[in-house]
Design a protein that fits this description.
Shape: elongated
CATH class of the largest domain: Alpha Beta
Order of helices and strands: EHEEHEEEEHHEEEEEHHHEHEHHHHH
Radius of gyration: 35 Å
Number of strands: 14
Helix content: 25-40%
Strand content: 15-25%
Distance between the termini: 118 Å
Structural class: alpha+beta
Strand order of the largest sheet: 1-6-5-4-7-3-2
Length: about 400
Amino acid sequence: MTRYELSLSPKYVSSWGPWEALREIWQNVLDETEGEESRAVWVYNKDKRILTIGNEGPEISSSTLLMGSTTKSESPDKIGQYGEGYKLALLILLREGFSVVIRNGKVNWTPKIRYSNKFQSDILVIDETTERVMWSGVYYDIHGINPSFLEDIKDKFLKLASDDVLDIKNNIHTPYGTIMFEPSVRGKVFVRGLFVCDMLSTGLKRDKIAFGYDVNPAYIQLDRDRHKVSEFNLFWETSRMIHWYMLNRDEIHNERHINMTAYNLTTLIDKKYDAQYIHAFGLPQQGLVKDVCDMSFREFLKEYGRLAVPVKDEAEAEMIRKKFKNRVPVMLPEVKYLVVTASESYANHTKTYEVTKVPTPHSVLKKFYDEFHTQMPVKMNKSYRKLMERSMNWFIIENKPLERIDDEEVF
């Protein structure tokens, strides 16, 4: 027998419990399947109270028992990046009273907590024994798992979720992750099927998020404890998923998929956080993107009237007031403004705007001359026409008084 001593105290990661331990082991298994998740094994023997988690992949090298040792730090599509996961999982399971045997190719690893003379403390050790049976893959046999415990954690693993959550009718799969429509997972964030956090528990109002999401690990950054996610990072990726769906709906839609209509998406963009960065991925006027932009503009006119003009800031609002007759500028949030103004309907509507004619010194003088020139003496008439001729190059500088003009210059 060979014994490996790991410098891990049983008190380490004291906030973690059995669910975090199973999460780390299952995540490790998924990472080893190289995308072929059908190779992953999750089997529960209720009579023996043994949960077996594993995969038909390569065996684990003893070098991975070193803290920080990982082959996944350069693999963005894998969840584990820190080289700690399964070692911490073994420590926690032992601390919580479970026993574990790892069938690792031609050897068995049995983790234990033992006193170390070298460290003068209890530490995690792994005893390695050679077996007659050669296992094809790596399997964690976790003893002492009660059915009630699995029932308590089923919401943490999409693999154990209800049929309604897993039903393809309630999901849209994209290259960046899955949009989940089942109300029971609304606001919940998973990464490759593993629960990360509930955005509603962070203070986000329920009416501000529409769906649940299972994000591809290549597109989300997690901390070591895997229970926090950047709100910006999350909604950037949810916007990307929704944008992808808008561009590809006609190709992927069938009777088994939820069909998000232009109306659904217009409401989503207007009122939810899920699509708040959708404009960053472009708004080409085709397919569902075109429909959403056109509907957004129609809804804008319906709410504010046909004389309303969408603007993004006060400077643009002031320009509209000066340039266009009877138009009413309405300031919109950035996303809604970009979606509304991307519409072809908006572009056509702007052609109906009547430009307000701003009077010039020449136009004012000419209007007066046209009305009263017949009543002017000959000399005045002649001088006035000279004045009008010179006024062709005059303009008004706002908020500045006009300079006095010497009479002799004109007359």
